[in-house]
Design brief:
Shape: rod-shaped
Distance between the termini: 124 Å
CATH architecture of the largest domain: 2-Layer Sandwich
Structural class: alpha+beta
Strand order of the largest sheet: 2-1-5-4-3
Number of domains: 4
CATH superfamily of the largest domain: Histidine kinase-like ATPase, C-terminal domain
Number of helices: 14
Radius of gyration: 45 Å
Number of strands: 17
Strand content: 15-25%
CATH class of the largest domain: Alpha Beta
Length: 495
């Protein structure tokens, strides 16, 4: 053999040795298999983790199976001579599972025929474990995100909602990429003093209160919190907005405030009644002392008027607290109106207010007589108060009551030309304990009127404007309403 041939042979052996070392040092599982899936050779890592596997079937070594695996990538390589890949789970000699990425490649003879297939397993067990942990963390985070009892959104700099929790999606007309002001309020432009925009500007959290409108049109009072979301470099990529529904708390606060006003109003009314009683007693006692019958009569009339005021106040309170359903007896509104006018005749005379009536005397409805009396008494009394509240000279004041039939309803209208009401005042009518008389009223009058109307299946509305007086319209069914019918109340518009 020539010297050049010897050198070439030595180089070839060195390359084969280097390839063998590389084959053993590769940090993967490598095996070469024949068409019967017997392992012809394997690298060192395969021997270390799976034992002596030469001549063994790969499916028995790697998976403890007694038959070839379905969809075997080695079988596909023998079938079409191409490379294939898959993901598998194999078990080492200790029975520990390993997640692997499988790649197969054909080994050919000089003529191109596939003699064997090389199968390479890349162990991705750690990566798979990390993926599972990440997936579990994301799932837990999403569950917490969805189960939070508030409305949560994540917004970009264009105020587009890119993430939303379940409660937000259920309560608002939500769509991915919709602007927050469109979703929360149905607006066409951003809200003034937007807390999210402010947080995008300086990255500081914000807190405030706002009113949202849900998909049913209901106003939702919320406390709003914003917080910046940053990337690893500290750049703000989004802002999380959390809206906590406090509508029930605010409603309770309003009720408590109204209750406080009610207590104050009642105390003020009782104080006035007590002052009137003391004044009547004083005048009466002077009359007895000086033997002046006219003083005795005047004092006694003062006592009677104030006892009647106190009686009406207490009866209104008891009526508001009553839960029993009213009786259904034939009632003539015209006759009840005469009684009410007689009750207020002296006061109207003293204040120069004209009481006028247009009543159908043949009209009869089925109702509780005392309730209809309370209804008319409170509405007429409020109308007189409205006339007395206006400061003006040379104006003739009147209170006019109309009672008529329209189809199957009795329509009662109480009209005055007194001080009137603005839109804000009208919007609060028929709410608990709201008074149009400020600190001098209890709010019980309109509350009683509303309760009477609703319990009898009717409606009550008001039309008014400042300085032009008011018209309260009551509609009551002539027959007993259907059981369970929902009564309504409306507030009307400006005259």
């Amino acid at each position: 053999m020539s010297e050049n041939a010897l050198v070439s042979a030595a180089k070839l052996r060195a390359v084969e040795q280097a390839c063998g070392r590389l084959f053993d040092e590769v940090p993967c599982y490598i095996s070469i298999q024949d068409r019967e899936f017997r392992i012809l050779t394997a690298n060192r890592k395969t021997w270390e983790d799976f034992g002596d596997c030469l001549g063994e079937f790969c499916y028995r070594v790697y998976k403890g199976r007694s038959a070839p695996c379905p969809e075997c990538p080695v079988a596909r390589t023998f079938a079409d001579g191409c490379e294939h890949s898959s993901q598998e789970k194999i078990f080492d000699r200790r029975g520990l599972p390993r997640d692997v990425l499988v790649n197969t490649r054909p080994l050919r003879d000089p003529s191109g025929q596939v003699l064997a297939a090389m199968e390479l397993f890349t162990d991705v067990t750690v990566q798979k474990e990390l993926e599972h942990r990440l997936h579990d963390s994301l799932t837990r985070f999403q569950n917490l995100f969805d189960l939070a009892p508030c409305f949560i959104s994540v917004q970009d700099r264009e105020l587009r909602v890119i993430e939303a929790n379940r409660r937000l999606m259920e309560n608002f007309s939500w769509r991915l990429g919709g602007r927050c002001y469109q979703i929360y309020k149905g607006r066409s432009e951003p809200c003034p003093q937007c807390l999210v925009a402010q947080t995008f500007q300086d990255g500081k959290p914000r807190c405030g209160e706002d009113v949202l409108v849900d998909r049913s049109g209901r106003s939702v009072q919320v406390v709003v919190h914003t917080a910046a979301i940053r990337d690893p470099r500290g750049q703000i990529t989004g802002v999380m907005e959390l809206c906590d529904d406090v509508s029930e708390i605010r409603a309770l606060e309003d009720k408590l405030a109204s209750l406080g006003r009610l207590v104050g109003g009642i105390a003020h009314s009782v104080k006035n009644v007590l002052e009137g009683l003391r004044g009547g007693l004083y005048i009466g006692n002077l009359g007895f002392r000086d033997n002046k019958p006219e003083d005795i009569r005047a004092g006694w009339e003062m006592v009677e008027r104030n006892v009647a005021r106190l009686s009406r106040l207490i009866m209104d309170m008891l009526y508001c607290a009553r839960e029993a359903s009213p009786r259904r007896l034939p009632v003539s509104p015209a006759a009840v109106l005469q009684e009410v006018f007689a009750l207020y005749a002296e006061r109207a005379r003293q204040t120069g207010i004209s009481l006028e009536a247009e009543a159908d005397s043949e009209l009869t409805l089925l109702a509780e007589p005392r309730d209809i009396h309370s209804l008319l008494s409170n509405l007429v009394g409020n109308a007189i108060d409205a006339c007395c509240s206006e400061e003006g000279e040379g104006k003739s004041y009147r209170v006019k009551v109309r009672v008529a039939r329209q189809d199957e309803q009795a329509v009662i209208q109480v009209e005055d030309n007194g001080v009137g009401m603005d839109e804000e005042t009208r919007s609060k009518l028929f709410t608990k304990f709201f008074s149009t008389k400020g600190p001098f009223g209890t709010g019980l009058g309109l509350l009683v009127a509303h309760k009477v109307v609703t319990e009898h299946g009717g409606t009550i509305s008001a039309q008014s404007s400042p300085g032009q007086g008011s018209v309260f319209t009551v509609r009551l069914p002539l027959q007993s309403p259907v059981a369970g019918a929902a009564p309504t109340a409306t507030r009307g518009t400006t005259q």
